[in-house]
Each structure stands twice: as structure tokens, then as C-alpha cells.
Amino acid sequence: MDLMSRFRMYPTPAQHVALLEQCRHARYVWNLALEQWAMWTRDKGPTPGYVEQSRQLTEARHAFGWLRAGSQTVQQQALRDYDQAVRSFYAGTHQRPRWRRAGLHEGFRIVGPQASRTVAVNRKWAAVNVPKVGWVRLRLSRAIPNAKSYRVTRDRAGRWHIAFAVIPRPIPAPGTGEVVGVDRGVTVSAALSTGQLLTSPRLSETEQARLKYLQCRLARCCRGSNRRERVKAAIAKLHAGAGDRRKDWVEKISTDLARRFDVIRVEDLRITQMISRPKPKPDPQRPGRYMSNRRRAKAGLNRGILANGWGALVCRLEDKAAGRVEKVKAAYTSQTCSVCGHRAPENRESQAVFRCRACGHQAHADVNAAVNIAAGRAVSARRETPTRISLKREPQLATSV
User: Fold this and answer.
1) pLDDT tens across 189-211, in order?
2) What's this model's pTM, rounded to 2 decimal places?
3) Helices (H), 102-225
4) What are the C-alpha distances in Å from 84 to residues 32, 49, 101, 252, 286?
5) Domain with 82 in it
């Protein structure tokens, strides 16, 4: 699977306008192809494929000057990307293609010889040749890989990035035979079976206060006003900073685990289902009304799950430690004693305290669950008692950032 080596771009004001125009053209072509697919009915015959849509794009470029002013490479690549998205959807590997919105999906992709047109200016700066835009500067945070495609994107904070598609080499196993279990949580982002507690960086108290202030201002702004756009940009800047720190934390932790352990075992969690919205509960006594479904509490839990980077951590572990990541069923791992194997809901006294009612073993609740995961101790839904599996090393409680 292709991964991305991303760099920050610094376009000039004129290049900024040209890049937005290319994003607008790519989004228009994508949505137009999706509209043809969405309006399909059995009596209309098959929907046009990439070849037919490419022919229609050529006719549209001859008819409309604003479309002809854009890059044909960008527009045709948007059709190729859409065709691949439909194929992946029918293959069952990806979700259904969705509409692309202005301000949310700003970007386009370049594939072919043009993707390798990069020039190093000095040790800190380089330039890439973007079709119909020119040479755009980018910051050299690492060596530019030899890639055959790249994607230009703009986030909500207004920052431009270029990501080169490369296949990085996996990190070799240390060969020590060590096995580690990783338990993911909301309060503690990741607890290791070695006793190490890891917490993902989050918004500071000052940033949380400013975010609350900006959200109050946003509620008072008129829709469509310039002030509302400025407030939205300030909020996006705060979230972008938090997202960058979280990605940096995921990269460092995944690299450290891949270098230290031969086998990494994690919980097999369905995060998409876990962060879904609760369904409304109709009130049988009051027709047309609904009962409380604790949606505010669920929304807070969803934010906590997303802020801890559960999915990103496992995804990067699978990339860096290919073939060495094992997923264990998460059922009852937090209620089972890692010493005697006794399982009971009363064993977990609180979010952080685990005390076995049978043998009296006491440990951090998340570390105890991580030890069960490291031992491959999975309990099925039939409430079977797991067999006791000894570990080579007993975990020692230790705190870290």
C-alpha cells in the first residue's frame, strides 16, 4: 500500500489562487462523475466509464473556457481516481464514493513524469513544478523520495501540503522474542504490558479556553459573514495544531514499539462502529417525542476516542511492523486477572484500579488488560474461562509521557 511523505508548501498569493482553481476543477469533475453514477436506473443502461467520461471531458473543455483554463492532467486524474474508487467500492475494500465539498476536500493528484519535477534550492527549501501553477516552494523537512505521484492538499487552517506516494521499508524486528500488548483507552491513550502508560498530547488549558471563547463567538456570527470565516479559520488552526502533535506522537510511539518488540498484540476494535451516533428512541407515551439517548455523553466519548488516535496508532504499527502485529479479541480483557485468570466485573473497581477478588492481585486496570492482550488471552462471548499463559517478564508499573 502506498503511503505518503508529506511536506509543507508555501505558495505565493498568485499561486494560492491558481492552486484553489485546480482544486475547484478536480472537485467539479469528481462530483459530476458521481452524479452520473448516482442518477443511474435500470432503464437507462450502464453508466459511462472512464473512457466515455474522458471523452465527455474533452468536449466540455472545448465548450467551456473556464474549464479549459485548468490543467487537463488534473481533471483526467480526478476521473481516474473516481473510477478506482468505484472499483474499490464494488470489490468491498472501500466505502462508497462521496461528494466533495468546497473548503473540506481541497486537493488534487498528479501521476506520471510530472510528479518527479522537483528541484532543491538549498538545504532548507525545494521547489516542485505544479501544472498550470508553476514552481511552488516547499520546506525540506526530510529528503524528497523518488515517487511517481503526489497529492496537493489544503487543510481547514489554510495550509498547503504536498504528499509524495512512496512505499517505505518496514522496520526490522529486533530478534529478541519479546511480545508486548497494547491496551487503548480514553484516559490513558495506550497502556503497554510492560507497565508503561502513554498519553497522546492534547489541547492545553489555554488552548481549551481559547477554543471555548471562539466557539461562543462563532455562535453569534451571522452565516456567510467575513467575521464568521475568520473565526472558523482560528478554530481550524487550533485543531490543526492538535492534530499535528497527535500525528507526531503516533509516529514516535509506533517506531519505538516496532524497534523494541518482535510481536505487537492489540485489541481488535471496530472503531467506526464505536464512534457512531446513538439512534433516537421514540417515546411510546408521547407520540412524536423522543426519550433521552445520552447523545451528549456519547459525543464526548467519541471525541475522546478520536483524540487518542486509536486507529492511527494501529495503522502505523501495521505499516512499520508488517506481519508482526496481531489482533486479539477485546472481550473481558479488562475484567480478567492476568495472574490467576479469574474473571468478574467486580475485579475492576474503577477506571484505573484493578483488584482480583480471587487472588488479591492489584495493578493498574489498563496494564492488567495489556498483559492479557500480550498473552493472547481472548475470552469468547460464551464466557469461557481462558487458560493461563505465563509471560517471560512480569510487568512493572511505570509512568511516562
Assistant:
1) 999 999 999 999 989 999 999 99
2) 0.80
3) 205-220
4) 15, 11, 19, 32, 49
5) 3-166
